[in-house]
């Protein structure tokens, strides 16, 4: 605050108590105090005013600030609201995204769980389906180790005429078995694998007889589906036993399958997954046993169950059109009802499949495998019956339990019938609607068999069969009105009787009819037995008689009757008297009596059994007929017994016995399946000096074969030791036999030794080397197979075929593509000329993997024509090649040779798209423009074109052309040295493929010309085209004074193959008087008596065999 002006002026001095102005101090003080107060008041007022102004300003500022605050807060509130809204929106987006991510994670986890569950299901299903238990076996088998590929084909319902079926229903058992074999072979020609049916049809029904392998096939199909082996995308099998589905009471098959998956395999959530996989075609529905739903309390209930299941399968097929569906059903239980399903038949096993099955079954015991194969091969009835997989399984089980075959085949048949009538369904838990006990079923089947076998019928009209059933039913207190119901029950549920064609029935196999007829005769008593013995010369009754002998309480009377002796005369024949009272040239009564002993019947007449054996033994050594001697040796081996076998072994070792007889004995001993005999043969071989004594060398070849057939592995070292002898260098028949036995029995070391020896065989004996190499195809040593495969591209041409054969034999069809690739890498074709059969190994077990490389090779113009032509032979064994071949032949730019190759393969597969190319090639052949292929042996062009043209209906055309070409070759030659042998070697086999009955005179003229042109070689050509009406021509050329034994033997061998008229007997008996020809003539008599059902006697009698009703 500024000082007052007063404060700077000088202050006058005043008296005490008085100011300088004389004013009293108190007044001054008071005034000063008042002034101070006033000043203070003024200052205070000023300060107040100032404070008020400041306060007002502050309040105004505060108010402004408040307003600013309120404005800010308002703005902030709005911004916060916006922020909150945006945050909320962001949080919502985040929540949605998080929820979506969570759902994705959950779905992924669920999918992962489903995949894991599905994979777990597949693993468990595979393990379950792999375990195969047959009937009362103590432990299950491994399906994959045992399985043999079944074949199926499109069903062809037969509507046969009365005349056709009557012709098929009658004849000798041999003829009927031949017809069955031919039918089976024809069926195989159009067959396919089940997995091919999945690819081709998508949905199908497989029909088959009981035990035909339908369930096993479906189980194996499930295994392959689970592994993605049918198509890569198809990996989920849904396997359902329809009987269990019906028992569950559920109405939806897929829901039942899902329920089963969850409870049996822990596959939770399976239903949606199954639906999804079926909808996308990644799952296959495999439904087993449609016929098995026919069980139940009544026929009506069974029929309703069938129709409901069929409707459900149809519904699924409609809902999931892209899903493969396979259904199995017994043939007699098939009622139809599945729309848009292809119906297929499952085929019986062919012989190669039987062999594979036996080898798989006895994989750990090759001796037993060889023994069973030999036993089956030695008996045509058993091998034919074993074409049914169930019966073959029973045969294997019985054989495994040391019930020898075929000696005890009657007991085997008992077992088979018991299984088919009773156990097969009961072991699988199937309940059938039935009216009979098992015994009553057998009684009826025996009645049917006895009645129709007595009439000589294999098949019978339905009305006649119903009449037999109607006559039988009252004997067991059932009304005849039930005959139809009974027939349907037996045919549908047990398969022992089956529909053979519409309106015609027959037993599952002729052997079963013979078996039931034998049982019936045994139970009917002595009169029925005598009736059968009276028919002993009739082949139709032979098997019945043999089975009857095995069932007899005492077969003495039956055997005496067979020998033509009085059954009441129990004394042995006098010295010098033949055992058979009035036997024929072939000693058929004696041989039949010996065959009766094979079944080890009970013979109370003690002298009779040894007398029959001794007489048969003597006949084996004395008969001039090779075929009869071989038959006698086999019968003796089959009768068996240690003493008899030792007697035969002693005879084999006896160098005084004719070499051929010893060989036949050795060959027959191979049928025994006896390890003891194999050991004896091995010891005998080890002790012989085969390089010094030729008389031992020939029987030794058959001894080695016998050891191999028996499967005697301990012989391996001895056989390997025989490789060091010089005989291996020059005797390729011995070498091939020895090599096959070593490869089979001596393991990897034996295979290696064979390779070493083959590498050191001298060049001039290359055929021996090739046989040693080919023998390796029987080895199981994969390492050897791979070494052989590696040699193919660089091997000498003459060895290529042997390496191919051996490599494929060891490595199997799975390696076929690699073997073919190795072969096609070669730049030469000399191997074809050296070994025309080099490619035949590919056709033994054809692999579909070969279709692409083969069709590419035949279309490749850079390859030699002869190679492309030879490759066609493999394509002809592959029906899968048809679509590709059709595409090739339709191309405009394809060259003639490719077109011919494709046309020939198509023709052989019964497709006529290549007809123009084949006809053109036939013209080229006739004009000599295809001469380069005459010498190709198995691939020669004439037979191949002829075969293809016959298949497509051009038989008459090709026959005319071939006859003309043969005539030209024969007429143009000035002498035997001028003959074009290559042409005749191919043209005559080609001509034989046509129906020669239409040109019989021309055929006989050609035979006459061929034999006249070149004696022995001419008989080889004649053999291709000879027919029954050629016999006079052939016999007319038999002039002993001008022709040697070999020539005559060739002609008589041809006569034996075709003769069918007894009018030739007198001429043959005259020829038989010459000891040189006696054996061959007896071979002709053996064929003639069998073919014409006659007996031929030394005195010239020809007695016809008849078939009167029993």
Automatic annotation (TrEMBL):
Pfam families attached to this UniProt entry: NACHT (PF05729)
Location of region: Disordered: 1-20
Composition-biased stretches (Low complexity): 1-11
Domain named NACHT: residues: 202-330
Annotated PANTHER family: SLR5058 PROTEIN
Record's protein name: NACHT domain-containing protein
Species in which this protein is naturally found: Phytohabitans houttuyneae
């Amino acid at each position: 605050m500024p000082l007052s002006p007063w404060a700077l002026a000088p202050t006058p001095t005043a008296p005490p108590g008085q100011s300088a102005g004389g004013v009293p101090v108190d007044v001054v003080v008071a005034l000063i105090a008042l002034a101070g107060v006033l000043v203070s008041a003024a200052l205070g007022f000023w300060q107040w005013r100032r404070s008020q102004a400041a306060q007002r300003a502050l309040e105004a500022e505060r108010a402004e600030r408040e307003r600013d605050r309120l404005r800010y807060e308002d703005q902030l509130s709005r911004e916060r609201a916006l922020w909150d809204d945006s945050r909320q929106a962001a949080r919502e987006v985040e929540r949605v995204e998080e929820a979506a991510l969570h759902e994705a994670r959950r779905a992924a986890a669920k999918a992962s769980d489903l995949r894991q569950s599905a994979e777990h299901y597949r693993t468990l299903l595979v393990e379950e389906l792999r375990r195969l238990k047959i009937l009362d076996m103590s432990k299950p088998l491994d399906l994959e180790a045992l399985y043999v590929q079944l074949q199926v084909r499109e069903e062809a319902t037969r509507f046969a005429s009365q005349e056709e079926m009557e012709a098929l229903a009658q004849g000798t058992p041999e003829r009927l078995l031949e017809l069955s074999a031919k039918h089976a072979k024809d069926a195989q020609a159009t067959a396919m694998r089940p997995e091919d049916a999945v690819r081709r049809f998508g949905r199908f029904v497989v029909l088959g007889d009981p035990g035909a392998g339908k369930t096993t096939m479906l189980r194996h199909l499930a295994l392959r589906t689970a592994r993605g082996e049918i198509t890569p995308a198809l990996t989920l099998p849904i396997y359902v036993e329809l009987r269990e589905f019906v028992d569950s009471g559920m109405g939806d098959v897929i829901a039942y399958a899902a329920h089963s998956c969850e409870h049996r395999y822990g596959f939770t959530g399976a239903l949606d997954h199954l639906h999804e996989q079926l909808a996308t075609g990644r799952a296959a529905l495999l439904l087993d046993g449609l016929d098995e739903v026919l069980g139940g309390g009544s026929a009506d209930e069974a029929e309703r169950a069938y129709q409901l299941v069929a409707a459900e399968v149809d519904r699924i097929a409609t809902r999931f059109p892209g899903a493969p569906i396979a259904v199995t059903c017994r043939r007699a239980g098939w009622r139809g009802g599945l729309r848009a399903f292809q119906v297929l038949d499952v085929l019986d096993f062919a012989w190669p499949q039987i062999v594979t099955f036996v080898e798989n079954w006895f994989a750990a015991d090759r001796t037993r495998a060889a023994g069973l194969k030999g036993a089956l091969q030695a008996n045509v009835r058993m091998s034919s019956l074993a074409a049914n997989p169930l019966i073959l399984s029973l045969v294997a089980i019985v054989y495994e339990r040391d019930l020898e075959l075929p000696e005890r085949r009657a007991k085997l048949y008992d077992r088979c019938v018991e299984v088919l009538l009773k156990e097969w369904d009961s072991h699988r838990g199937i309940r059938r609607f039935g009216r009979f006990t098992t015994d009553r079923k057998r009684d009826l089947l025996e009645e049917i068999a006895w009645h129709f076998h007595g009439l000589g019928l294999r098949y019978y009209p339905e009305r006649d069969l119903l009449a037999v059933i109607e006559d039988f039913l009252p004997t067991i207190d059932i009304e005849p009105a039930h005959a139809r119901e009974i027939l349907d029950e037996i045919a549908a549920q047990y398969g022992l009787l089956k529909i053979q064609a519409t309106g015609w029935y027959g037993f599952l196999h002729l052997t079963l009819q013979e078996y039931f007829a034998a049982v019936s005769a045994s139970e009917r008593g002595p009169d029925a037995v005598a009736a059968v013995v009276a028919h002993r010369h009739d082949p139709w009754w032979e098997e019945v008689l043999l089975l009857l002998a095995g069932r007899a309480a005492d077969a003495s009377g039956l055997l005496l009757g067979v020998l033509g002796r009085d059954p009441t005369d129990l004394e042995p024949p006098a010295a010098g008297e033949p055992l058979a009272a009035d036997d024929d040239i072939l000693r058929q009564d004696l041989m039949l009596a010996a065959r009766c002993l094979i079944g080890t019947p009970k013979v109370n007449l003690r002298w009779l059994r040894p007398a029959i054996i001794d007489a048969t033994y003597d006949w084996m050594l004395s008969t001039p007929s090779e075929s009869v001697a071989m038959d006698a040796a086999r019968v003796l081996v089959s009768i068996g017994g240690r003493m008899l076998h030792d007697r035969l072994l002693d005879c084999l070792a006896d160098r005084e016995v004719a070499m051929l007889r010893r060989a036949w004995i050795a060959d027959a001993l191979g049928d025994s399946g006896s390890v003891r005999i194999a050991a004896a043969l091995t010891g005998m071989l080890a002790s012989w000096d085969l390089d010094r004594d030729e008389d031992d060398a020939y029987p030794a070849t058959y001894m080695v074969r016998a050891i191999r057939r028996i499967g005697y592995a301990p012989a391996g070292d001895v056989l390997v030791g025989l490789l060091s002898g010089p005989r291996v260098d020059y005797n390729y028949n011995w070498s091939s036999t020895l090599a096959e036995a070593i490869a089979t029995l001596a393991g990897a070391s034996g295979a290696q030794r064979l390779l070493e020896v083959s590498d050191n065989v001298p060049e001039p004996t290359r055929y021996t080397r090739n046989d040693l190499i080919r023998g390796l195809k029987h080895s199981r040593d994969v390492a050897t197979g791979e070494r052989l495969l590696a040699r193919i591209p660089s091997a000498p041409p003459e060895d290529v075929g042997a390496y191919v054969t051996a490599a494929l034999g060891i490595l199997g069809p799975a390696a076929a593509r690699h073997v073919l690739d190795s072969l096609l890498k070669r730049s030469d074709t000399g191997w074809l000329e050296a070994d025309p059969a080099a490619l035949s190994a590919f056709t033994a077990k054809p692999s579909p993997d070969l279709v692409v490389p083969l069709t590419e090779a035949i279309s490749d113009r850079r390859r030699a024509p002869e190679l492309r032509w030879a490759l066609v032979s493999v394509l002809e064994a592959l029906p899968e090649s048809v679509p590709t071949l059709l595409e090739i032949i339709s191309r405009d730019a394809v060259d003639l040779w490719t077109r011919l190759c494709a046309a020939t393969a198509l023709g052989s597969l019964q497709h006529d798209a290549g007809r123009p190319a084949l006809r053109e090639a036939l013209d080229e052949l006739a004009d000599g423009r295809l001469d380069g292929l005459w010498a190709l042996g198995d691939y020669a062009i004439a037979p191949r074109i002829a075969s293809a043209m016959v298949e497509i209906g051009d038989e008459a055309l090709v026959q005319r052309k071939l006859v003309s070409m043969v005539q030209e070759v024969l007429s143009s030659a000035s002498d035997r040295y001028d003959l074009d042998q290559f042409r005749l070697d191919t043209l005559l086999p080609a001509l034989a493929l046509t129906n020669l009955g239409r040109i019989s005179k021309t055929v006989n003229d050609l035979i006459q010309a061929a034999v006249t042109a070149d004696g022995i070689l001419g008989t080889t050509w004649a053999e291709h085209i000879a027919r029954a009406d050629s016999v006079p021509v052939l016999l007319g050329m038999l002039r002993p004074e001008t022709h040697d034994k070999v020539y005559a033997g060739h002609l008589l061998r041809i006569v034996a193959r075709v003769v069918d008229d007894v009018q030739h007997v007198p001429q043959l008996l005259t020829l038989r008087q010459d000891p040189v020809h006696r054996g061959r003539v007896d071979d002709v008599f053996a064929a003639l008596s069998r073919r014409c059902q006659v007996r031929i006697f030394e005195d010239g009698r020809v007695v016809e065999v008849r078939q009167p009703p029993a």
